[in-house]
């Protein structure tokens, strides 16, 4: 196995829309926990984003925005390798090789493929189908030990583990088999318009999502309109999916437990509770938003971060690729 001083963490976010508090609470906010003790790679996964049609100018802008949000959310580029997936060609190269070690039946079982094919019925492309092998390549390329993700990515991560184990069993130890890191409380933030559905950045219903960059009045309005049941008690119990979701969000932004929240709002109505959730969320996002605005005014800095990140990530990726190429029997061009 490859020698490493520190354990490795890898994760990524697609620049497929303005990020939501689901992306923030389920993933990015947790990334910062690892910076001191782990070797961290955080990627803007633009190659994944094109599995669904993107307008080029929007994709370009969102790639900068996602990188700026990483930094604004507390990821120091000096301590973490922050980079853009398409800047390191080994991701696509390893994905092809791993495609040849992934079964059609395995990919057919992926629930995200089924959901996204239903949403994009006119564009069920091969990339959408093989998305999980590209994700496996992203992770395995860096000999990753741990992957902080929301629960929606758990199935993909299990497939990445299966692919790594399959490759290792054929060719001997090549890849570290990664573990997921999924904090339970924020594993799946639900849509505010339909609490049975995940909050997704590409949701067309603006009332379904709260975006990290929404202004305070918009955040409060969206929470006020959040779909709940017809009752009036703030209780974390089955049958009250909308309220449970709002309680999880409030707990994540305030650090309060579900019991504490129930006590705080005992005898108070949904209206008062929704306003408190909106305010807690807006207050926590305010510093992220002002840092983001500063960063977006300094494109040269963001480009410098991208360039250094690509160089760092590229160096690690080349080491894995040369091992993989040798193991599978590819030849080297002697120049
Ligand atoms: N609602 C959510 N709750 C908790 N975690 C979430 N994540 C996404 N939505 C939630 C986590 O955010 C990380 C980045 O997600 P992604 O950009 O790779 O794509 P996704 O999972 O498909 O997220 P979206 O927002 O639903 O994007 P679109 O709409 O483009 O498909 C992942 O760790 C994910 O688990």
Summarize, please:
The protein is mostly helical and 335 residues long. It has helices spanning 21-31, 46-49, 56-72, 90-99, 104-108, 111-119, 126-141, 154-171, 216-224, 241-254, 258-264, 270-296, 299-328; strands spanning 8-13, 39-44, 80-84, 146-148, 179-181. It folds into two domains: 8-182 and 299-328, HUPs (Rossmann fold); 206-293, Tyrosyl-Transfer RNA Synthetase, CATH 1.10.240.
What report would you give on this structure?
This protein has 335 residues and is mainly α. The chain has helices at 21-31, 46-49, 56-72, 90-99, 104-108, 111-119, 126-141, 154-171, 216-224, 241-254, 258-264, 270-296, 299-328; strands spanning 8-13, 39-44, 80-84, 146-148, 179-181. It has 13 helices and five strands. Helix 8 (154-171) links the parallel strand 4 and strand 5. The mean pLDDT is 95. It binds adenosine-5'-tetraphosphate (AQP). Residues 13-14, 16-17, 20, 22-23, 26-27, 149-150, 152-153, 188-189, 198-202 line the site of adenosine-5'-tetraphosphate. Adenosine-5'-tetraphosphate binds next to helix 1.
Task: Let me know the number of strands.
Answer: 5
Helix content: 40-55%
CATH class of the largest domain: Alpha Beta
The gross shape turns out to be globular
Unreliable sequence segments: none
Radius of gyration: 21 Å
Q: From N to C, what is the helix and strand string?
A: EHEHHEHHHHEHEHHHHH
Q: Give the CATH architecture of the largest domain.
A: 3-Layer(aba) Sandwich
Per CATH, the superfamily of the largest domain is HUPs
> Roughly how many Å apart are the termini?
29 Å
Give a list of the ligands.
adenosine-5'-tetraphosphate
Q: Output the number of helix runs.
A: 13
């Amino acid at each position: 196995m490859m020698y490493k001083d520190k354990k490795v963490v890898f994760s990524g976010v697609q620049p497929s829309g303005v990020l939501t508090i689901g992306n923030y609470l389920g993933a990015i906010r947790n990334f910062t926990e690892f910076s001191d003790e782990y070797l961290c790679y955080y990627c803007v996964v633009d190659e994944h984003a094109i599995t669904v049609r993107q307008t080029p100018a929007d994709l370009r802008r969102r790639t900068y925005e996602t990188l700026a949000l990483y930094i604004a959310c507390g990821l120091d580029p000096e301590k973490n390798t922050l980079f853009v997936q398409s800047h390191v060609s080994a991701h696509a190269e390893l994905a092809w090789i791993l495609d040849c070690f992934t079964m059609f039946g395995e990919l057919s079982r992926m629930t995200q493929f089924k959901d996204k094919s239903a949403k994009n019925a006119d564009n069920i492309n091969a990339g959408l189908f093989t998305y999980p092998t590209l994700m496996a390549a992203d992770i395995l390329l860096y000999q990753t030990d741990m992957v902080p993700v929301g629960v929606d990515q758990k199935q993909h991560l299990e497939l990445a583990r299966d692919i790594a184990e399959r490759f290792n069993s054929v060719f001997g130890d090549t890849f570290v088999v990664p573990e997921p890191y999924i904090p339970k409380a924020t594993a799946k933030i639900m849509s505010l318009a339909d609490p049975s559905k995940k909050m997704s950045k590409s949701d067309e219903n603006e009332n379904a999502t709260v975006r990290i960059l929404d202004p305070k009045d918009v955040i409060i309005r969206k929470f006020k309109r959040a779909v709940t049941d017809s009752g009036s008690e703030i209780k974390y119990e089955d049958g009250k999916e909308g309220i449970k979701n709002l309680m999880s969000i409030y707990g994540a932004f305030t650090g309060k437990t579900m019991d504490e929240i129930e006590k705080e709002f005992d005898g108070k109505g949904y209206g008062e509770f929704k306003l408190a959730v909106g305010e807690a969320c807006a207050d926590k996002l305010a510093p992220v938003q002002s840092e983001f605005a500063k960063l977006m005014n300094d494109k040269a800095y963001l480009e410098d971060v991208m360039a250094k990140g690509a160089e760092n990530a590229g160096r690690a990726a080349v080491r894995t690729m040369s091992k993989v190429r040798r193991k599978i029997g590819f030849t080297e061009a002697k120049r």
